[in-house]
Amino acid sequence: MDHDHRLRLYNTHVKLMAFDLLSLTQTPSHSSSEPISFSRKGTLFSRAETVGTVTSRELKPGKFLKFSVDDGTGCVSCVLWLNHFSSPYFARRSPPDVRLIAEAANRFAVEIRIGVVARVRGRITGYRGAVQITVSDVVVERDPNAETLHWLQCISLARKCYDVGTPNK
Amino acid sequence: MASSAIKSGALVSLEEIHPSSPFFKQGASLRVTGKLQEYSVETAIAIVIDGNANLKINTQHLRDLSFRVGSLYQFIGELLIQPDNEAILQARVGRNIDGIDLNLYHQSLQLLRQFQADHLSTP
After folding, report:
1. Helices (H), B17-101
2. Residue A46, by phi and psi: left (phi above 0), alpha (psi -120 to 50) or beta?
3. Which of A14, A23, B60, B61 is the most exposed place for a label (fewest CB within 10 A)?
4. CB neighbour class for A76 (10 Å; exposed up to 12, middle 13-18, buried from 19)
5. What's the confidence (pLDDT) of residue A167?
6. Interface pTM, i.e. ipTM
7. Nearest CB to B6; choose among A17, A68, A152
8. What pTM was computed for the model?
9. Helices (H), chain A
């Protein structure tokens, strides 16, 4: 029951503000094949969604796009891989699938510009001791109320879902 | 480019930027919201207002942003406090936010601050 409870939010894209996301603790994995997970108040997360302003952008063509998303409570580092045709990770997958993923990633890379508000989804990963998001999806939000609504969703989800049933000190 | 050098712009309202405020620090990274009252092409200085408060914004580093008096804007940048204690925000990011519900924005900001404070007090 405890084990199931800890995993109930695994593989869903949890909506967290940057200050919350950046304070997640990486749980030690017992083997290299075990997926990475991060814990918050006893619950395990693997994926997250963040919404904020893109404030930095570093492109290495054919390799990756690193960018940061500032939501007013912190800056989340994001990495969008662009190395689909040269990486051994994608070599195992069928070429038409890899082409689709690569096309989507390249479209995202063009849309991510400094100053835009982006909704970014992906896996929570760690790099040099810091939490980051390995990007799977990006949507540029043109509605100026999108960020406000994201804050309210983060607060509501934390109170009604993410914090529920967690052990109190 | 070292991404760790880019600081998050703290969400503040214009009325909170005055000498006795904790946000009034040289180089503080802030995110401000206001209506454009004045803009000078020669100096690239914009003045935004929100209620009774106003703030000068240095927009010289901003690209692809057109300035319309009366429109609402949001800027992220660093606070430069001049010798006469007047503050100007050196903006590195700016966008037009016409259509934003400012009441909802301000109310949500208060909720967010409370949420952050609660989170810090119960680790």
Report:
1. none
2. alpha
3. B60
4. buried
5. 59
6. 0.93
7. A68
8. 0.93
9. 2-6, 18-21, 88-91, 95-111, 146-157
Residues belonging to chain B: 123
**Is A114–B93 a contact, with Cβ atoms under 8 angstroms apart?**
yes
- Give the pLDDT confidence of A8-20 residue by residue, as tens digits: 899 899 999 999 9
pLDDT in tens, B79-118: 999 999 999 999 999 999 999 999 999 999 999 999 999 9
Which two three-digit tokens encode residue A10?
């695994």
Greatest Cα pair distance, chain B, in angstroms, is 50
Strand A64-70 and strand A130-140: pairing?
A: unpaired
For β-strands B87-96 and B53-58, DSSP reports them as parallel
Note whether A54 and A141 are within 8 A (CB). no
Closest-CA distance, A120 to chain B, in angstroms, reads 17
Q: Considering only alpha carbons, which residue of chain A is nearest residue B7?
A: A75
Contacts 24+ apart (CB under 8 A), B109-114: B109/A151, B109/B11, B109/B13, B111/A151, B111/A152, B111/A155, B112/A17, B112/A72, B112/A73, B112/A151, B112/A155, B112/B11
A151 vs B: CB within 8 A: yes
Beta strands in chain A (DSSP E): 13-15, 25-27, 37-40, 43-45, 47-60, 64-70, 75-81, 117-127, 130-140
